[in-house]
Amino acid sequence: MDFLKTPEIRLNEDLQIEHVIQEFDAGIIDDVAWAKALKKAKGNESYAKALYIDERIQRIKDLRSMAPIVQKELDLKNLEDQRKLTSKDVKSFLFKSMVVIAFLSIATCSLYYLQIPAIALYSLIITALAVLVSLFWLCVLQGRTDRINEQIDEITNPQKSDTILWKLLILTLLGLGLYYFFS
User: Fold this and answer.
1) How many domains is the chain partitioned into structurally?
2) Conformation bin of residue 27: beta by default, left when phi > 0, alpha when psi is -120 to 50
3) What is the pLDDT of residues 12-37, one digit of tens each?
4) Which residue among 73, 106, 152, 165 has the highest number of C-beta atoms inside a 10 angstrom radius?
5) Cα–Cα distances in angstroms (integers) from residue 180 to residues 166, 167, 168, 172, 175, in the given order
6) Is 159 helix (H, G, I), strand (E, B) or coil?
7) How many Å apart are CA 28 and CA 18, to the nearest integer?
């Protein structure tokens, strides 16, 4: 059926064969493809070299078709690592902010106890601002964690968005049906 192939397809196959030959000559041998070729050649190494080209080309095609799956797994691992780092950041930030707020609270109480109310008031304001800034940054870090979790959910549950679309379509059709039924 080679006569049905276009010149582009034949040239592409020639390039693939040339690539495999260059790999072989450079000593880069795919062990799995070589083992399959040797098995088909029943141990005949010169025949196995000829079969190796087809086996290697098929393995390259298979690996290319698997690339999206491998990329998905790499993305998932990367997101899991980001989630762990963000979780550590949140814990570290909470600890540090609690230490600062505790220190400021103690300073405020000490100033009030020493009967320096003007400076104690400023210290109280600074403490309140520290609490507000801490809450703001905690919300930012939590938002980052939520976005990472959403990305992980999108990778692990790709049909989730399709389910929502189907529910929306069903509700729309139900609403239209009820509208026409009662009008």
Assistant:
1) 1
2) left
3) 888 888 888 888 888 888 898 899 99
4) 152
5) 21, 20, 18, 12, 9
6) coil
7) 13
